[in-house]
Amino acid sequence: MVRAMAGGRLLGRLWSSEPRRFAWPVRLSARAAERGLAGAAVVALRELRLQDEKAWRALRLADDARLSPWEATLPPQAGEGALDFASFVRAQERRARLGEAMSFVIEVDGALGGQLSVDPIHWGSLRSAQVGYWIGGSLEGCGIARLAVAMALDHLLGPAVGLHRVEINVRPENDRSLALCRALGLREEGLRRRYMHINGVWADHVSFAVVAEDRRGRAGFVDGLTGGQS
User: Once rounded to an integer, what is the mean pLDDT over residues 144-155?
Assistant: First the structure.
């Protein structure tokens, strides 16, 4: 055991900086009808791939007007540029293997239907992650996004990954995502002012979260689904 002192305070143990690595790539799937959901037979989460570019661009561009108000952007002072699709996929693959993020496609009956990101993932004393997602407009209202998020939460908080806390931050104007988080029973933790740069401005977000203790002795998120929309 190694301990450190700073300003007369005991900082505690120092562990190796090596993060716990989860299996990657991974595929998660559920039969929608068994969860009382219409509009699809099988919903799956699997890794974003280079060959997804054409389908991803077609879906994302078709829904640009609907999705842009909720899309994260880089502030001018960041001095960073957006990555092209191939560079983004390679960067996310590298980060997944380092245990820093997971970039999933939401696959609906074998077709690309949206995206779910777990980013960033923190280890050490935090063991936490944030989840974000979007889905094609034709799939809204079928419960597919809710099922995809439920699968991700079960995976992240379960033994395969072993996180302690997962949070989702939602624009107060985004009624669908607010309803999704509430339907899943996530704890609402309040408003984070100017939390993230969205569609060119610093935007407030409502924070929702779940910790591992909340799920002890309870059914998983997927098993708890009973239909509805989101």
Answer: 96
76 burial class (0-12, 13-18, 19+ CB within 10 angstroms)? exposed
d(CA 174, CA 178): 6
Q: Where are the alpha helices (DSSP H) in 69-130?
A: 85-97
pLDDT tens digit sequence for 73-123: 888 876 566 679 999 999 999 999 999 999 999 999 999 999 999 999 999
**162 contacts 201 by C-beta, under 8 angstroms:** no
Structure tokens of 85?
Answer: 């699709």
Closest CA to 118 of 137, 102, 134: 102
Q: Distance between the two ends of the chain, CA-based, in angstroms? A: 48
Q: Cα–Cα distances in Å, from 67 out to 36, 60, 141?
A: 27, 8, 15
Residue 48 falls in which region: left (phi positive, over 0), alpha (psi -120 to 50) or beta: beta
CA dihedral 86, 89, 91, 95 (to 10 degrees): -170
Distance CA 132, CA 167 (A): 9
